[in-house]
Amino acid sequence: MVEDLGEEELYKRQFIGFVSLLANSAMQQLGKLVNPVTGTIERNLSGAKATIDMIRMLQVKTQGNLSQEEQQVLDSSLANVQLNYVDELKRKDQPHTEEAAAGTEQPDTASKDEKDEPKD
């Protein structure tokens, strides 16, 4: 139980949980995870960048003050969200739907001329 943990172990678990919360938030903002409230995939790259910047700030401000496990979780979480952010920047102009994320998006077969024609 949490009550049986020493203060140091409790803070370690809380820190790892906090880093994981931030990383999961960034992944949701990147459109990599479904929003549990709406049930949809949403992409907010500026929000993701702000969250990634917060994780980086934690890394800088806690340098030399973390256990090996805390440092490993922080470093790997930051690297993971940064790589996914770069991936999403490459896809910035592409629509991001649940079908695309699942790899089941249907190809757009309409020609450019058909798309540009006004519909009656």
Summarize the structure.
With 120 residues, this protein is mainly α. The chain contains 5 helices and no strands.
Give the helix/strand layout.
Layout lengths: L6 H23 L15 H17 L6 H23 L7 H5 L9 H5 L4
Helix pairs in contact: 1-2, 1-3, 2-3
Structure write-up:
It is a single chain. The chain is globular. The protein has helices spanning 7-29, 45-61, 68-90, 98-102, 112-116. 61% of the residues lie in helices and 0% in strands. It is built from 5 helices and no strands. The chain is mainly alpha-helical and 120 residues long.
* Order of helical and strand elements: HHHHH
User: Helix share of residues?
Assistant: 55-70%
Q: Which structural class is indicated by helix and strand composition?
A: mainly alpha
CATH architecture: Up-down Bundle
Do you know the CATH topology? Methane Monooxygenase Hydroxylase, Chain G, domain 1
CATH first level: Mainly Alpha
Report the major sheet.
none
Number of strands: 0
* Number of individual domains: 1
* Inertia-based shape: globular
On the 0 to 100 scale, the average pLDDT is 83
Strand content: under 5%
